[in-house]
Predict the 3D structure of the following.
Amino acid sequence: MLTLLLHRPSAQEFYRVEVSDNLFGEYTVQREWGRDGRARGMRNVLFTNLRDAVQAADTWRLKAARRGYALTEAVAA
């Protein structure tokens, strides 16, 4: 599992991108966003291979960075 956590410093907003595998040999990219202490949004996208999943996660990380989010934590388990 790979988790990237981004925050927007001026506001208490976050954007999280996580890549994980499932029992069927697929990979899920889960995106979650919102403000600390408020309702959150979430999307899951399935991929058949790890390379495509990681590329998609990196694309969403770059889009978040262009919107002012900064990478604050990266965890690989």
Q: What stands out?
A: The radius of gyration is 13 Å.
